[in-house]
Every structure is written in C-alpha cells, then in structure tokens.
Design brief:
The chain has about 350 residues and is of the alpha+beta class. It contains 11 helices and 12 strands.
C-alpha cells in the first residue's frame, strides 16, 4: 500500500485567505480535487508541510458571461468566465461551454473517468504537474532505476541523458484546447489580480512549467466568445481509451467566413500536447486560410505541418516515432469528422 506522507491541512473559505495562507505557510501546496497531487505525494515526489484546500472556496466556482474581455463594459456578452474550482464534469456539461466551446466540453469529458471528473477541477487540470514515464512511479521503482532523475531525487535525465533540462510532458486534456480558443488565465496573489494568455502560461521546463508565481493561485479562465462561425475539435490518442492520460493530443480551431464547412477559413489554430512541458502551437498554416474546410488540401496542410513540427520524446509510454505518426493520423481524422458533421 502506498502511504501519504504527513502534512497539515488548511481549509480557507475565500481567495484572500488562500493568499494569506500561501504567504504564511512557505512550502505549502494547493489542493483542489486532489486527483493528481495526492497520487504524486504517495509517490514521494514532494513532501509539503501543509496542503491548502480550495474545496470550500465558493468564489472559485462561478461560471458566467461577462460583458467584455476585461470583465467591465456594458455591451453584449463577450467572454465566458469559468472559475478554477468548477469540476471537469461541470465544465463538460455546462450548456454555455457546449454551445460556444464544444472542443473544451469534449476535452473535459475525456479526462480519466466519471469519478475523477467529479472530483478534478478546471484549475487542477490547468496546473496539472508535468508527467514522465521515469518519474510517475513509486519511490521503490525510481530507486531501482539508480536514484531518480532531475525531477525527483537524482541529477540526470533519462529521456535526454546529456540534457540539463527536464522535458516531462504537459499531459492535461484541457490545456491545448484552452490555448486554441485564446483563453486567458486569471491569477490572484499578494500583488492583486493579473491575467495571462493561456498561450503564454506555460514554460519549456518540466520542473516549473507555468509562469504562476509562488503565492499565486489560478482563480479562473476567460474565454472570448467566437466572433464568427467556427468549427473546433479535440483529438486524444490513448491505448485503453478509459482512465488514460493522452499519449498525444491535438486541439484544432477553424474560424469560417460563414456557418458552413464549404465556407472559407479566415483563421485557424492547431495546438499539440504531450510533447514536452510546453504545448506546441503549430505554425505556418497560412496556406489553409481562404480554402474551404471541406477542401482536402486543408487536411493535408494541417496534418503535414503537425507531423513536421511536432516531435514527441520518449517521456511517456509508446515509441516517439509512432506517436508522431498518430498526430498526423488524428489531425486528418479530426478534420474529416468536422467536415462530415457539416
Ligand atoms: C487514474 C488517473 C487518470 C487521469 N487521467 C487524466 C487524463 O486523462 N487527462 C488529464 O488531463 N488528467 C488526468 N488525470 C489527472 C487529474 O485527475 C486531472 O488533471 C484533474 O483535472 C486534476 O484536477 P484536481 O482538481 O484534482 O487537481 P489537484 O490534484 O488538486 O491539483 C493538481 C495541481 O494543480 C495545482 N492546483 C490546483 N488548483 C489550483 C489553482 N486553482 N491554482 C493554482 N494551482 C492549482 C495543485 O497545487 C497541483 O499542483 C488523471 C489522474 C488519475 C489519478
Ligand atoms: S524528462 Fe528527464 S528529468 Fe524530467 S522527469 Fe523525465 S527523466 Fe526526469
């Protein structure tokens, strides 16, 4: 049996108290649903003196339409605000998410299993620690490997043996989608509130893979409502297709001149996950702009760019070259499904 280490637990009821506790309890970690941090503690990947639970912070559970991106103004609703404390089940089933951001509903609904989605939160999924086949193991397993690695108790990387940087994978299902939808992350800390584009929230360092400062917590996500017709999708490849982290993931978004797959693409985003610590925004897709989504050339351009630019590492199970092929296959399949849906 894997035992949890000993730690204190704090149960604040508002955001201000969370910030105070983060200041007063150095080394304390936040816990939301606990579905990732608690297994990691059982694996002795950290030994914080205390956990600060967000479970009673009702302010983190808001879901509402805001009038403008900044939350002010009195115009038409422009942004959907989703509190970090909403469960993944709530996100997946929320009518506004399903209506405006179906790829986010898909991604949240594909995380792990119903029980885990009922506990796990959007904020926990956003801040999910990076994962690696060499570190998300028992201490006994890591010791047998010869004393861990940069992310545990050692000083080498087993994925890139001469590397000095941890390349553990960002394996959250929602993150690539949030980036593809131009979401913004709202953070609260001792200096007040700040907002960071989800695309800038992640760093290419598996040991500290977000720009969230010590003393800050994520309070919510702001998603700009689509200004034009749009088709979007999330593709996740796993082996068991149940209670599995993604082995590759891909979020796609196509803005269209009209509400039809025969209309011209005006803008597009493609974001891949599970490569390294930072999701990859696929670049050089301009050739697809102006073409109809139904045009077979679009799938060819996108799948080709994904394959060229995304190079998985041996950081999660399954061979990296195979996962690279899967990225291309799933890009094509996701676009074919969008076209078929009309
Ligand atoms: C068997 C199993 C299968 C899984 N499969 C998947 C999967 O398929 N896809 C997937 O994406 N995830 C998967 N997970 C991981 C996890 O369940 C989800 O990512 C979940 O969304 C984590 O949310 P949580 O609220 O439980 O986070 P917690 O475990 O409570 O926290 C996770 C991390 O986020 C930090 N954190 C939490 N909330 C905040 C906040 N508001 N501000 C700042 N930091 C915060 C914590 O300090 C911690 O570092 C799986 C987990 C298990 C055990
Ligand atoms: S990428 Fe390297 S350093 Fe990072 S967890 Fe894996 S083996 Fe350890």
């Amino acid at each position: 049996m894997l035992r949890l280490p000993q730690f204190g637990i704090e149960l604040p009821e508002d955001i201000a108290s969370v910030i105070t506790l983060l200041r007063e309890r150095p080394g304390a970690r936040l816990v939301a649903g606990g579905t990732d941090i608690l297994p990691n503690l059982k694996h002795h990947l950290d030994q914080p003196p205390a956990l600060i639970s967000l479970a009673r912070v009702a302010e983190l559970r808001r879901a509402e339409l805001l009038a403008a991106k900044s939350g002010g103004g009195d115009g038409e609703p422009a942004t959907l605000y989703l509190g970090a404390g909403l469960t993944l089940t709530e996100v997946a089933e929320h009518p506004l998410v399903r209506e405006h951001f179906p790829s986010l509903a898909t991604a949240a609904g594909l995380v792990a299993s119903p029980l885990i989605r009922n506990m796990g939160t959007l904020g926990g999924n956003l801040n999910l620690d990076t994962r690696c086949r060499y570190v998300n193991q028992t201490k006994f397993w890591r010791d047998a490997l010869g004393g861990g690695c940069l992310k545990s108790e050692g000083n080498v990387c087993h994925v890139v043996p001469k590397g000095r940087n941890c390349v553990a994978a960002m394996s959250s299902d929602c993150v690539p989608v949030l980036i593809s939808l131009d979401a913004e992350v709202e953070l609260a800390g001792p200096e007040g509130t700040r907002v960071v584009p989800a695309a800038d929230y992640f760093r290419a360092d598996g040991l500290r893979h977000t720009v969230r400062e010590h003393g800050e917590l994520t309070t919510g996500l702001r998603l700009p409502l689509p200004a034009a017709a749009r088709r979007c999708a999330y593709a996740k490849w796993t082996v068991r297709q149940s209670i599995d982290f993604p082995l590759i993931s891909l979020a796609l978004r196509f803005d269209l001149a009209e509400d039809s797959v025969d209309a011209a693409i005006t803008d597009l985003r493609v974001v891949a996950g599970v490569l390294g610590a930072k999701p990859r925004q696929v670049a050089r897709l301009d050739e697809a702009v102006g073409k109809a989504l139904r045009d077979p050339a679009v799938a060819q351009i996108v799948a080709g760019a994904v394959h060229k630019q995304c190079k998985p590492l041996e950081n999660v199970p399954y061979e990296a070259p195979y996962r690279r092929q899967m990225l291309r296959v799933h890009a094509r399949r996701a676009i074919a499904a969008l076209v078929e849906a009309g």
